[in-house]
Amino acid sequence: MTTAATAALASELSPEAQLERIAAIGYPTKRDEAWRYAPHATLHQLSFGPSGAVDTDVLSEIDDQIPALDGPRIVVVNGVVDEARSDVTALPEGVDLSTPGHRVGGVADRLAVHPDSAVELAADAFVADAFVALNVAFGGDGVGIHVAPGRHLDAPIHIVMVSTSAGTHNTSCSKLAIQIDAGSSVTIVETKLGAGTEFSGGNTRTTISMGDNATLDHIVVQDVPSNQVHLSRTEVTQGAGSELRARLFNLGATYSRLQYDVHLAGEGARADLSGLYFGRGDQTLDQQINVIHAAENCTSRQAFRGVLDDESTGVFNGAIEVRPGANGTDAEQSNDNLLLSNRAEANTQPRLEILADDVACKHGATVGQLDDEAMYYLRTRGIAADEARRLLINGFADQAVHDVGIEALRTWIAQRLGHDDE
Hints:
By secondary structure, this protein is an alpha/beta fold.
């Protein structure tokens, strides 16, 4: 990258440039289909700015919340790495971790030391909406993970992102960039937590680049407290023959938006996405899933389940886009919702856009209540009504939980859902 191009990119990524973009494009409204069910009055209460100091007493709340997993752990609080709570002593050979404390500050310096980061920086420059622009403006350098070619990691890499109100701004921004080189396989867990009792928010963005024949198991668990808003965006680009298995759990927050975009850019790439959202109270849990088939003979699967109780609202807006020339596409999508209350609401919008020949695509969605026949069957065998209801709910939700290959994390999620018998 030339000096002039570097300077132009640095200018484009500056907070001043991002704020100008926001002024030009404005914040999303209910007229934007992807933001139709968001609580816009609540979103307008979020305030953004550089990370401020965090009360250590508030942070102590999260120590018992973090799942205990094998492997390295990086804890990021309001966009800043918490070295005391992080543990990278088990970082495997061939894995490079870069954090703001180990990176040089400016764009030009970063490119001089890490030439490959031009891809990451260019991804930063892509702004889809005002909240992405705010993340670029105030997310700092973030955390970078680079897995060298041909590496096979046995233990997961655990990224814990914590948001809490600090300073004059109630919303923090965090960034994570992951590059997995050709032929490598890795498991990465992102756990999103929160601390404090004041209204606050977190705005996280993860960009993932997968080389040819790379394999990634990506598990995302969002469980921030009910006084917080959580905005999460993940962008994955896959090379030829690569395989992504993503498991997404949207559990906490008063409003949580989980956006997951996959670009199948190389021939024969495969993406398997599934997840669970479990709403209580007056939560709104929003899933925005987009898979783009841009190359031949790619395969994608989407399978998401929602359990909604009380006055909660679930949103699933899932898209499969098959671009011209992406012949041989095989894509499926399903969204099933279980309503536990007549006040709960499920909004499901599966979408297909096919611009290629010789493709196999299908999608479906269901919204229903507990099966009366199944309840009757359990009751006739001496099972109390509350216990029968619990068993049926668990059976519906656990199909997503059982897909998690890490026993300690699977148990942690099950306990969070109240499934003590996991």
